[in-house]
Amino acid sequence: MADVNYLKSRAYPQPPPLVLECDGRLFNTFEEEFGQLYGYKDYNCNLDHRSFGEQVWAKLPKKVVTNIGRRVVSLSSYDGDVRYFSCTGLLIKWHKNGKPVILTSASLVRSRVDEDKIDEKLKIKVLLPPKQVVHGTLELYHSDYNIAVISLQKPLYGIRPENIFCTVERTRRVVAIGREAEDGLLMGTIGKLVKKRPNEKLNCEDLKLSTCKIKKVGIGGPLVNFDNGYFVGMNFYGETGVTPYLPRAIIVEVLSGIDLPSQRGMDHATDIMGAATVKKNRWPVPKPYWYHPLFDDDAPLHFYGRQLQ
User: Which InterPro entries does the UniProt record give (predicted)?
Assistant: First the structure.
């Protein structure tokens, strides 16, 4: 019953008969980690056995690691007491006044009833370890590019929001960053920027690719320059050997010249697309599913569908 109640609190599908009793596993959850984990001051657990792949944090400049730790947050949206979505976000300086806001994926607040709409009733929780937890407010979103801007209802201390609106040099070696939803551990994986193959189709023609491999919780997280930690783009999630990301230049173009609704005295979020109705982009994210080899009939036993990334 404890397992069942936990699944309900996370809006995960209930297991088919006997799968849970036989130690079946739930895949594609927001608890799946990626890359090398990195703790924070006073975090006492050994993380070596929970890390995957190449060492990351020791290879990055110390200043880069510090900046990442103070500007990358975990976000979760809730419908009542039930968690709906978890992802990663980046604290940035708003171009109008330098106010710290969070850049992340609009999937955090998409409606379950109509995936083309935003559910502004969802509560947003922002976590910056070790102990800072505040509520966020949806300010802006772009349905086509799947961008969301979240403001903070209370200030976070010791932060170093990034100015993404300045010009930076190009790079090839990059790091994808995520923050774990429960304890707020950082996750990082090293890769490089790659070109799309001629026969490779993406849901958005403006997306680019990196070889960094992430999990669902890394959605909305930053792809950064390996050498200096500067923002390269916002990660999405694909189950292939590469990870799509929305480039910095596209994000800056979309957000430049826009005012935050709260600055204009408005109490509801604004769709940056305005009256535009053409939605050419889709952001598929695999839903969680149950699997056990004893029940394998050439395909996993699962409840599988699609939701927006």
Answer: Peptidase_S1_PA
